[in-house]
Amino acid sequence: MSDVVVVDYGAGNTRSVRAAITHVGKSSEVTADPGAIASAPYVVLPGVGSARTAMTHLNETGAATALRERFAADAPTLGICLGLQLALESSEEDGGVECLGLVHGTVVRLEAERVPRLGWAMVEPWGEAYYFAHSFVAQSPATVATSDGLSVAVRSGPFLGVQFHPEKSGDAGLEFLSQCLSLV
Amino acid sequence: MPLARLIPCLDVANGRVVKGVSFVGLRDVGDPVELAAFYSAGGADELVFLDIAATPEGSETMTTVVAEVADVLEIPFTVGGGVRSVRDASRIIESGADRVSLNSAALADPTLITAIADRYGSQAVVVAIDAGEGVVHTHGGRVATTTPTLAWAVEAASRGAGEILLTSIRQDGKRTGFDLELTSSVRASVSIPVIASGGAGSAQHIADALRVTDAALIASIVHENPSGLPGLRREIEALGVPLRPIKERA
Hints:
The complex is a heterodimer of chains A (184) and B (250). Chain A has 184 residues and is α/β, with parallel strands linked by helices.
């Protein structure tokens, strides 16, 4: 069994996430198989595509149920970008989407000077700059880090979600990922 | 606001970096993968690869290059040149690129912008505009169209582009500074970020551009001395433009 299961929800780029996981010395596989997701030592829910498409895919494959099961069993999951947003209760994207509900809060359209919010920004209180590319943002009481006043990390039990892309954030991102994966 | 970005642009033809990269410390200056890793280590915030040959055979090669780059690079990268359909965009993004850059294909069919944005999100779609004398140009800047630059920028944004890559034809290759007036006017007309391109000859030029916009594309200034990138970043910061903190590797 691989150290990390990267959840496949049918959209785009899991290659960079896997490359970063390899870089920090862990093995990974990409799958939507509910059994593999439920039993993996660590799961990464990556961030590409739209909320509706992603949730439809997760529900149809049974991955959504598996993610809830592992959450209930206190098994660790990292959500990246859209992966963070999917863990909340609902999203405003695509006219409103019911999400996984692992973390209290909702996802709203970003109101910033420039949207999408693209580029490197400091994350506090962690004191590092990471790479962001998003048009939606969490509003959650489970917020554990912010950037420009926005919620960019949420934690609820074994789930940690980050709005930035650790796999695209150079050395700081790899260090972050390495700390997360030190659990396995 | 996110920090200003410095984005080296690599011209690629048939899988090889072309045009003026000179550095004795690299084993192979024509290898896009090695050069990408080198710029990443030197503090590039992002990279752009432009497929300047963009032939059907070249596209296949480019897909391979994209996958190889994605496996070694831990910063975002954009691929442009020869993206003419959703299928082209999918091929590139699913091989590991973060974003595609559209130029004449978007001008010919603006619905392409929306189609790619719907599938991969606005952040994955850059619209490149070659601008001169108030109008958009095609064919690498050689042919003027009748489309006004500002109107096209606004339309591209409204159709779902996540960023504008704006090249001043007048300044491109001259190394006498960016066209700040053009950059400011395009940026003021849209609410998406704008990358300034064309004219970087010094840290001062880049700092001036980053004071009026979100990112600067750089080419010859860094290609003729790839190991000078960390120094260039320090100079820009000394001129009062904060960039992301880089940990110097031992």
